Amino acid sequence: MKYETPITDTDLHAYLDGQLSEARRLQVEAWLKLHPDKHRELQEYQLIDRELQNLFEPVLRGPVPDSLRIQPRKRFHARIAAAAAFLAAGIVIGWNSNALMLAENQSQQLQNHLIRPAAFAHVVFTAEKKHPVEVGAEQEQHLVNWLSNRLNTRIKTPDLSQHGYQLVGGRLLPSSNSMAAQFMYQDKGDKRVTLYVRHINDIKADVMFQFARGNRLTTFYWVEGSLGYALSGELDKVALLTMARTTYQQLSLDV
After folding, report:
1. Between 24 and which of 20, 88, 162, 251 could a Cys-Cys bridge form, CB atoms 3.0 to 4.6 Å apart?
2. Per-residue pLDDT of the chain (255 residues; tens, 9 = 90+)
3. What is the CATH number of the domain that holds 170?
4. DSSP classification of residue 48
5. Which domain holds residue 108?
């Protein structure tokens, strides 16, 4: 079969989401038959989708608790309430083919101290137009030094420019029983992703590339040593996973 244009990652993402025209879908399926490794990868993502749909759809469609139905007066408080309702609608923990199921207590620790705080902070601060960050990218070295000192560990800012995202800046945040750093990135279309970093002392083993989903927000998270990382964005899983792998590789390098 001849292709009018080469099959790209964008086509594969759209294929997974059922957003291709019939003609393009047939072209992608023909291409996948010639690329079995990519076909297997997409099948794994489709399996994840089906499992999550079957297990957690009732939670995602459930009503927001009455305690979160607030009509605050101030704009910032309204955004906080919206974020809380967003989280209450359900964050679904998933896994990829290489990940082990976490023990229940570790899973709860990650929910309480990494996933929910990271998602909450993403929803609140990516909505800001004038003050999305505390320290801008033009002071990147100062930002890194400051947050490293406050978290009492050396942290770095990954370069996501190969994915079309530039550093906006970052901020220091409270995070349940500790502090966290949030770095924000933005593409030319003003889409934003955030990287949330904090100590996770109760997890005894490294956790690789789990993902959580709440409404439109997807978060890939992992734990290495004493640090937990959560990369969040309103992107499809494949695109965000690719970005998470880049982030992990850069953060794991000794410099």
Report:
1. 20
2. 555 578 887 788 778 777 888 888 899 899 999 988 888 777 766 765 665 555 445 545 555 545 444 444 455 555 555 555 555 444 444 443 333 344 556 777 788 888 889 999 999 999 998 899 999 999 999 999 999 999 999 999 999 999 999 999 999 998 877 899 999 999 999 999 999 999 987 776 667 778 887 778 889 998 888 899 999 999 888 888 889 989 998 988 654
3. 3.30.200.100
4. H
5. 65-252
